[in-house]
Amino acid sequence: MFKSNIYTLLSTILMMSLLLTACGADGTPTPAQELNGIQTAVAETIVAQNATQSASTSAPVAPVFTQTPLLFSPTLTPLAPVASPTLPANTAKSKCASASLVSETIPDGTIFTPGAVFTKTWEIQNTSTCAWDTSYKIIFWDGDVLGGAYVYNLPQAVDPGQTVPISLIFTAPTAEATYTSKWMLQTPDSIEFGVGQYNAPFYAEIDVSASATPNYGVTSVAYDVVRDPATGCPANVNYIVYATIATSGPITLKYYWTQSDGNTSNTQTLKIESATTTTISHEWKFHIATTPGEKWMALVVVSPIGKEYPRATFTKTCGE
Fold it and tell me: Are 195 and 236 in contact (CB under 8 A)?
């Protein structure tokens, strides 16, 4: 490209020389003088161009950097949340909600005077696989709160299989009537549970009477029949019925037992000093020759109020 520029420049000088020769003499420099001047200018121009070309080929041009940083705006798509496995509500603690009622004080139907203060105690067994601590609660469930609070903490830690006494202080209402106060247990994550297979509430049931001589009586009878021996077919087998009698106060009972074969026991006397539960028993002996099948025994109270209570049924096994 450099040679092409020189050829172009020489052509331009030649044309200018012809034009100057064609002009007349008017005191201006002669064409020979002007040609010498032009040749000198051309030579200087070529020298300058060579210098520029040499500089451009010997020194590379340094890059120019700006002070402004480059900015990126990446578009990130949020990760979809990982779905947790679906579990029944309160799965973690539901296995801890299992208990049974072992025993209790103050039988149902116990008579109190209006405003009397009493303490009811339930022996509750931990039938779960968890250890209960004092963050477990005793909560009012239904009926009449009987002057107590609505929520209590479990009084002590209870390992699986152990029992805990739950004692609540109550106050009998002033109005004469029958009152029931029902309670449940609660796990730390708010699962309510009671006792037994059906998670039933444990409760206190009292009668309030202003009478100076209230009529105390039997409030309930519960049976349990035991075979002795428990298995086998020996010559003689005994069936023993245990009756747990709950009374509402001090009372003297007269009673006897009756059987499905028509036989009865002698009349007996039972003196009870306070509202409590008392267990009595009756035995019926069978020979192996006795016809097997369903049998029953029942308690009959003669006084102070006569009543035959529901039968305790059982099946006699072995025999002809």
Answer: no
Q: Return the pLDDT at 160.
A: 96
CA–CA distances in Å: residue 221 to residues 231, 303, 305:
27, 15, 14
Residue type, 269: T
Q: What is the pLDDT of residue 93?
A: 63
SS3 47: helix
* pTM, 2 dp: 0.61
244 contacts 270 by C-beta, under 8 angstroms: no
Q: Please spell the DSSP secondary structure of 146-197, one letter per residue.
A: TTS-SEEE-SS-B-TT-EEEEEEEEE--SS-SEEEEEEEEE-TT--EE-BTT
Burial of 111 (0-12, 13-18, 19+ CB in 10 A): buried
Give per-residue pLDDT as tens, 152-170: 999 999 999 999 999 999 9
Q: Which of 173, 208, 243 is the last residue of a domain?
A: 208
In the chain, how many domains are there? 3
Q: What is the DSSP letter of 305?
A: S
> What's the domain range around 11?
2-53
Strand-strand pairing, 151-153 and 192-193: unpaired
Give the end of a domain, one of 208, 232, 263: 208
Rounded distance, CA 17 to CA 41, Å? 14
